[in-house]
Amino acid sequence: MSAPAARRGFPIHWVGVVVEYQILGRLRVVGAERAEVVGAPKVETLLGALVCRVEEVIPAERLAYEIWGARPPRRWMAALHVHVSQLRKVLGRIGGDPDGVKDRLVTRAPGYALLLGEGDAVDAKDFHNLVCQGRSALRRDRLEEASKAFGAALALWRGPAFGDVRVGSMIAEFATWAEETRMECTELKMEVDLRMGRDRELIGPLRNLVTEHPLREAFARQLMIALCRAERPADALKVYRFIERTLDQELGVQPGRTLRELQRRILADDQDIPVGIVA
């Protein structure tokens, strides 16, 4: 995410009701007393693009492309101005400060910028910070702290990033980053919890992850380790066969070296199977 507004030449000169922009699920704006989704699809896309680049000026032409693609209306600048006005009304209602909303959604050549007031937040920014905290704790071998940070990061998600917002290239790129980081965070959370000996309680969640993401071998490896530690090596080998079959059918390839080595060690009745965290 970008640097705070005050450091980018936009002095923060208002203190209103705290507003949170939530994009880790259905796009919505949450104020002190209400949460609201933006019903109009084009206004919703506009808000999504602005939140992606919060505290940055986005050129009007770039916003128009995000909303209409390669075929904008003939009077696209006027139409964009209407959508900006509609969005300001929404932010004014939620923030409880209709007169000061222009300080949040500002006009700056060559376009517009969404600024954060004191106490305002973006859930994706909080997610990123928590993942960084978890990685830092993991590097220092502070497993309980890392597990809590990764768990708090994942708890911010309410569904697919941006929900059903009409996706332009800017939103699509941001959503791809967010979803990939979510998967990485999930992998790290499971690895940390395995190291902490939470094998049996992880079997159920890991089964769901393997079913939902059979091409991500990390989840299969973690599930196999948890099953072995729960004295269920036969079930661990069934997981391997499921992944082997799925990869062959979907991609025509075999499991990676790490998963093959784990299978070999289970077949050899190796009692010392490492978890293998990479922070």
UniProtKB/TrEMBL annotation:
Pfam families per the UniProt record, alphabetical: BTAD (PF03704), Trans_reg_C (PF00486)
DNA-binding region location: 10-116
Keyword annotations from UniProtKB, A to Z: DNA-binding, Transcription, Transcription regulation
Domain named OmpR/PhoB-type: residues: 10-116
One annotated GO molecular function: DNA binding
InterPro entries: AfsR-DnrI-RedD_regulator, BTAD, OmpR/PhoB-type_DNA-bd, Sig_transdc_resp-reg_C-effctor, TPR-like_helical_dom_sf, WH-like_DNA-bd_sf
Domain of life: Bacteria
Record bears the keyword Transcription regulation: yes
UniProt-listed GO biological process terms: phosphorelay signal transduction system; regulation of DNA-templated transcription
Family: Belongs to the AfsR/DnrI/RedD regulatory family.
Protein's UniProt name: DNA-binding SARP family transcriptional activator
